[in-house]
Automatic annotation (TrEMBL):
<dbReference type="GO" id="GO:0016805">
    <property type="term" value="F:dipeptidase activity"/>
</dbReference>
<dbReference type="InterPro" id="IPR002933">
    <property type="entry name" value="Peptidase_M20"/>
</dbReference>
<dbReference type="InterPro" id="IPR052030">
    <property type="entry name" value="Peptidase_M20/M20A_hydrolases"/>
</dbReference>
<protein>
    <recommendedName>
        <fullName>Peptidase M20 dimerisation domain-containing protein</fullName>
    </recommendedName>
</protein>
<dbReference type="InterPro" id="IPR036264">
    <property type="entry name" value="Bact_exopeptidase_dim_dom"/>
</dbReference>
<dbReference type="InterPro" id="IPR011650">
    <property type="entry name" value="Peptidase_M20_dimer"/>
</dbReference>
<dbReference type="InterPro" id="IPR017439">
    <property type="entry name" value="Amidohydrolase"/>
</dbReference>
<feature type="domain" description="Peptidase M20 dimerisation">
    <location>
        <begin position="265"/>
        <end position="355"/>
    </location>
</feature>
<dbReference type="Pfam" id="PF07687">
    <property type="entry name" value="M20_dimer"/>
</dbReference>
<comment type="similarity">
    <text>Belongs to the peptidase M20A family.</text>
</comment>
<dbReference type="Pfam" id="PF01546">
    <property type="entry name" value="Peptidase_M20"/>
</dbReference>
Amino acid sequence: MSGFVEQTGCFGGLFRKARRTRYPTHDTASTQKSGDISAVDTRVHHDEKCCYFNLTCDYSSCQESERWHLLEDPPSPTCSKAESDTEVPDQGILELVENTLNQLSPELRDISMKIHANPELMFEEKYAHDLLTDYISRQGFKVTKHYLGLATAWRAEYQHGKGGRVVGINSEMDALAGMGHACGHNLIAISGVAVAIAVKATMEACNIPGKVILLGTPAEESGGGKVTLIKRGGYKEMDVCLMCHPAPGRPHSISVASTLAMQQIEVEFFGRTAHAGAAPWEGTNALDAAFIAYSSISVLRQQMKPDCRVHGIVLGRNWSANVIPDYSKMIWIARAPTFADLAPLVERVKNCLHASALATSCKVDLNVGPAYYELNQNEVLGQAFVDILRDRYGMPQTNVASSASTDFGNVTFEIPALHPVYAIPTEPQGGNHTPAFAKAAATLEAHRATMTVSNGLALTALRVLSDPLFFHQVKAAFSKSQLANNRVS
Ligand SMILES: [Zn+2]
Ligand SMILES: [Zn+2]
């Protein structure tokens, strides 16, 4: 790979071969004082190749003995020697990005905690929308609120010079019912802001032409906000898009593994009420339909591949034990390693739902939501990010497979994109979508990890903007993946 750059600004070349450049020693004292940069543990280095269908693969985030101890001092970022064939950023760029984020860190921590204290469900992220757009507009970005007809979506844009490439970044904002920010989207929200501001500062200082677009993307947990934004052209202008997500894991580790494709199916059963004791034969039992559907799908699970998932809930209204229920609703989610694998599974789930309606003489109404694709992680962006996080910050890569899903998967099939997952300290059995994870997402250690990962994303974005050969390789990897996934004719 070449360190050539299209233009030169205040630094002659932004990325160089590691054999020519050693990482500078990080100023540990000032870092610890500011509390901004997450220190890292260089003792563990896992590079496991994990894939679905590999039943020997460890799907747990880490062993209990490897868990992060909240009271341990974070190890310092090291000047670990970069591997010989990796490209490393210029020291000036590193310091510019890190200093920018060091300065921002207390404000971003404040924003993160405010969002954490005001959790909002999908498409209702009004508080986060207003807080984030106010802040980013004060940082010199051109802001569009309520972007593309979505009340809580937003866009912040900064253009430097003329032409150049366009880097996209995403900030998620939504929480989960009853447990707040149990997926840590408060951290994702500030990471997007951090990356955008660090990239802007470097574009200005180094005279790098191009554009950075930060999208505030609502409704990731459900509702597919990014799917709507894709349909409405929200990603059209971007050359690449980056974001990150917290999860449990080995201390100070990152992963650029994939996730499962996902489809939500809402089903309503309509029956007729009757007195459950006096005249049950006059009723049509919608709750029975839900129970039969639940049983049928539970039986279906035995015939599913082990890397697929189907899970759901039952909802009702005006239910009493002495009335035959005339209405029930179920929300099902089916997941499979790829979108292609998902389609036949969804058909089998639908068959179970129709069959239960038939068995109970209920009317049935199916509403199939937007599909979330699996993550098609861009391998060139991924390698660049992994190299930086390993060599500069000592954060090892663990390719632990995740059977979760994200609407960012759809973005990764539109344009070259990257969605690394990074570890934050969690309690045993306190992973995403538990109250314990909501607590973890508020810790200072989680904030530090977020800021470190944001450094890596900003440096990856700057490489896209400044290194044409690198961008060519990113695009080539994307085209190759599209062909492999039959996404192009
Ligand atoms: Zn999430
Ligand atoms: Zn989640």
